[in-house]
Amino acid sequence: MIIELRDLHADAELRNVLKGVDLKIGPGELHVLMGPNGSGKTTLAKSIMGHPQVRVTRGEILVDGKAINELPVNERAKLGIFLQFQNPVEIEGLGIVTFLNSARGALNKEKISYKEFMGAIKQNSESLKLREDLIGRSLNYGFSGGEKKKMEILQMAMLNPKLAILDEPDSGLDIDAVKVVAENINEIRRKTNASILLITHYSRILNYMEPQFIHIMADGRIVREGGKELISQIEKEGYKLDEGK
How would residue 55 be classed by pLDDT, with cut points 50, 70 and 90? Predict the structure, then answer.
């Protein structure tokens, strides 16, 4: 098992958000987390990564069988955990190439030549249909919402995490860009056997993916689980399908 959450409770913004989450993700598995606004999806993602805005108050987060509750963010990243932010920040003055190179070094990734490194950036940028001039700019500075989301997937491609938590990678994207992002996530997963927890409000990105597990979250808990057939139920009935379950 790559990651396991046991009875996870967490506070964010001085309120109790997670109220007992249990979840297991195995090697190479694609899990999708859905639910209404305010149900706790982003707080769950931040809890796993150790984000300072979230405080775990009870339960355990286990990676490869070892509890990581007390580990700082950088140590969790070294274990192979990657978080794609719902709202990526702009950092003026931090070049994208410098950032990616520093991140790889901090994670002790296999050393490659500068030529290979730049070749990988170029290849992944072209696959994501990112404009060539963006790579020479500061991280996310002046980028559109869709460009920021693609830049996060570029980071994922360059860092090859063991577990990628993708918080609404489809928001802010047009129909064509959703397909491009989905295809790139699929390719990264195929090449690296990465485990993925994908958070989304909409099913459109899932038209291009084959998740094995769907989890529905409400009021800080996972209240329903199933396969891809659960998505069609949500489209027909909304999240009310979970009332009384």
Answer: very high
CB 93 within 8 A of CB 137: no
Cβ distance 203 to 234 under 8 Å? yes
Q: Round to whole Å and give the CA distance between 121 and 192.
A: 17
Sign of CA dihedral 16, 40, 224, 26: negative
Which candidate, 193, 121, 201, 122, places its Cα nearest to that of 164? 193
pLDDT at 57 over 70: yes
> What class is the 3-242 domain?
alpha beta
pTM higher than 0.85, yes or no?
Answer: yes
| Least confident residue range of 67-71, 79-83, 230-234 | 230-234
Separation CA 112–CA 212 (nearest Å): 34
- CB neighbourhood size of 206 (10 A): 20
Number of H-type helices and E-type strands within the chain: 7, 12
- Please report, for the chain, the start and end positions of each structural domain, with discontinuous segments joined by +: 3-242
Average pLDDT of the residues of the chain: 94
